[in-house]
Amino acid sequence: MNKVEEFNAYREKMNERIKSADNKVLKRFFSLDNQAYQSGALDEKTKELLGLIASMVLRCDDCISYHLGTVHKLGATTEEIFEVFSIANLVGGSICIPHTRRAVEFWDELNDPPTAD
Amino acid sequence: MNKVEEFNAYREKMNERIKSADNKVLKRFFSLDNQAYQSGALDEKTKELLGLIASMVLRCDDCISYHLGTVHKLGATTEEIFEVFSIANLVGGSICIPHTRRAVEFWDELNDPPTAD
Amino acid sequence: MNKVEEFNAYREKMNERIKSADNKVLKRFFSLDNQAYQSGALDEKTKELLGLIASMVLRCDDCISYHLGTVHKLGATTEEIFEVFSIANLVGGSICIPHTRRAVEFWDELNDPPTAD
Amino acid sequence: MNKVEEFNAYREKMNERIKSADNKVLKRFFSLDNQAYQSGALDEKTKELLGLIASMVLRCDDCISYHLGTVHKLGATTEEIFEVFSIANLVGGSICIPHTRRAVEFWDELNDPPTAD
Amino acid sequence: MNKVEEFNAYREKMNERIKSADNKVLKRFFSLDNQAYQSGALDEKTKELLGLIASMVLRCDDCISYHLGTVHKLGATTEEIFEVFSIANLVGGSICIPHTRRAVEFWDELNDPPTAD
Amino acid sequence: MNKVEEFNAYREKMNERIKSADNKVLKRFFSLDNQAYQSGALDEKTKELLGLIASMVLRCDDCISYHLGTVHKLGATTEEIFEVFSIANLVGGSICIPHTRRAVEFWDELNDPPTAD
To answer: Is ipTM over 0.85?
Structure first.
């Protein structure tokens, strides 16, 4: 499995496990988290970019990977992604650089999946 | 002075003071901070909304006020602003609520400035 | 108005304003936030103490004030509150000290409201 | 070694290394950190749950693992743990979700240690 | 009272109040916090500058004020202080700017106390 | 490759990749980040120690590794490094302990590189 597949597989497996625990607050929170990115006054891509930058300044690699996956599906370009990263680094500082490195690696894999691993 | 005027006046006064210290790194950082929001692959309004949500999840009231001021000038609607706030609260959690309260108060004043203080 | 009354009044006023905006995600998030502290496997007081320490290590003064108000109603003692503060300072570091100062001032006012201000 | 054993072994080895450096402030800090969780006005389990939620909202995986280990020994139930996680996610936001995933995996291993790895 | 006097007075009053609560962990933590800045392999001024930048990237205004007061007594120059601020802003990002504004105001008052208020 | 070599190799590879994207803001930010640590009113070693503690309280392992590498070249002693760590832990709290463990491991490898891996 490459990094993208590995991330998705672990995320899915553990989200299922968490839902199976039947904690109502957590389940509603997960569901609300999906709802927040649905198209409204702002379109879905813009909202996912908002989720992406929020994840980067809060330095959550897995959250960054998730939003990179969704904006990739929604057709975001590499140039747009780097503009998001540049604002994130300005606002959040050089501590965002290591997360930017990993994010770019993940983004490149989304665009050009390694054939074997 | 109302809250918006007070914020702008203090910000301007102290930014001038900081620039007068002639620290090159800080001056270049301030200038780069402006450059980051200029229109590119993403338009200026989208970039300012990215700055707004980054400021909110990092819980910087003054940064929120600043970006509210710029997106207000760029024609953002109240509905759009609340969608940014909703994603910020989901990603950053309920600790963003007090900042949302102050942000909404500032936003309302931008849209309907109090006539006297 | 003393600090406790001032906090409650502003919080209530702005929460109403936010709800009036009719953003579904924010409204559900606010409602879920209340639900999370309801008695379950852990009792309400323990849950509010969990909310208190989370607020302190995340350094959200208003969140601290809110949870101090609720645990005060639920009969928490000053000794218990200081034990929460001591763990918060150990885990979150000396940057929690200024928040502890303000929290203790708020707690003292909850226990012994000033008669005039 | 499974994840629990691996975590404990590395933690112990490096804590010994740090203590061997003979920095008095660090040694006293480590010792104070233990003292903070001793039974007082609040019992030990409650204090460890406070440490757990503080670790989760501050998003420190190793701190979460440590407190999961101690509350496991103190008899906390899975239902209680998930209630802590649900408050953590509400207060700290969706950036806590990836930490929740890893925490649940660690908790499950504490309850049902893999026989081989 | 000017800002420096106000800060010192409140800090002292509430620290006394906290110590009066007789929570051993908090008292030892406060004492350890003082000990950490005593001259050792690194001199006192360097250690206080370390405390200053740590406070700024963690965005704790009161902690910044405290360390500005101590480095002022230890003879730090304005040029040195601005170099600390410049690194803080690079590492911690533009969310440090509002804290830098308030820090510079406090620093200027330390160097040139207002005669009346 | 040992940990130090692995860190340096990945960092260099991805920094090159990021620069190749030709985002001007990010490139200038990277360049400014280098400039901030150049000798001025404060010498280079002091500035790198400031970068080190800022990285530790912000809990960025890769940033810590980077600054450990530079202060190692600049002749910092183990005793000095531990004094930086002790202040970091006091200011930033016990959530810095796991980062301290990894930092000490990296520091030891800088001083005594494993011959094979």
So the answer is: yes
